[in-house]
Amino acid sequence: MPTALALSPHLDDAAFSCGGLLHALAGDGWRVVMATLFTGSVASPTGFALACQTDKGLGPEIDYMRLRRAEDAGAAEALGIEAPRHLPFREAPHRGYGWAHELFQDVRADDGIVPDLARAIRDLLAETAPDLVLAPQAVGGHVDHVQVVRALDIAGPRAPILWWRDFPYTVRSQAPKQPLRARFADLAEAECRFGPEGQAAKAAACAAYTTQLGFQFGGPAGLAARLAREGGIERFRREGALPDSVRRRVADAG
């Protein structure tokens, strides 16, 4: 059984950006491993880190990341893939990034998480031996996404990679930030198109992240409308030659 490994920075990124393809691969008989890197709970958060949950109506007594990990399990079930993996790294607000705007600026000089991320990714690669890796391009410029790209480059997977365009950052402005544009500029553009069944599965998976829907889309109706405008298309940059069974699902654009 071939294996696809999706490396998600946060608990929702993979489902939002390539859930349709993950569902399709699972339907084609692939083992699909969705591993999220920044999922560690932090006891008694303060300041901006605490505000990231209280501004969603969640009191300080709630283990926000535990709640989000449960949402991720529901998303994986909706996509028809195996139970997700949750790595214990801390999100940027727990690594010294002190306000929302800073999450989308340059990576802090004291943010030394990449070597640890790279080691964890190497372990995942060794364990799962993927035939395909999926990962973000860091469109939008979130520092956690940038650090995942850098760590994956250090880990050096042998499998081909589909680098997804990070939804919904891709649609928040006509010209979203792309701090790693040069890294991907020479890679072929590719896209996956999926029909009503795949669109329904992706919509259900995205809707499982209930804590994020108001912030990201203005609520469930906003999510549904935004996904409808995407039209069952997910876009990537392709690095390496895809397996034949994936090329049935993903074609170079243009």
Q: Helix fraction?
A: 40-55%
Strand order of the largest sheet: 3-2-1-4-5-7-6-8
Tell me the series of helices and strands, N- to C-terminal: EHEHHEHEHEHEHHHEHE
Structural class: alpha/beta
Radius of gyration: 17 Å
The proportion of strand residues reads: 15-25%
Give me the number of helical elements.
Answer: 10
Mean pLDDT: 96
Low-pLDDT sequence parts: none
Distance between the first and last residues' Cα: 31 Å
Q: Please describe the biggest sheet, giving its number of strands, its sense, and whether it closes into a barrel.
A: 8 strands, mixed
User: How many E strands?
Assistant: 8
Q: What gross morphology would you assign?
A: globular
What can you see in these coordinates?
With 254 residues, the protein is an alpha/beta fold. It has helices at 13-27, 47-54, 64-79, 114-128, 143-155, 181-184, 196-207, 210-217, 220-230, 244-247, and strands at residues 3-8, 31-36, 85-86, 132-136, 161-164, 188-193, 233-239, 250-252. Strands 3-2-1-4-5-7-6-8 form an eight-stranded mixed β-sheet, with helices on both faces. Helix 5 (143-155) links the parallel strand 4 and strand 5. Helix 1 (13-27) packs antiparallel against helix 7, helix 4 (114-128) packs across helix 5 and helix 7 (196-207) packs antiparallel against helix 9.
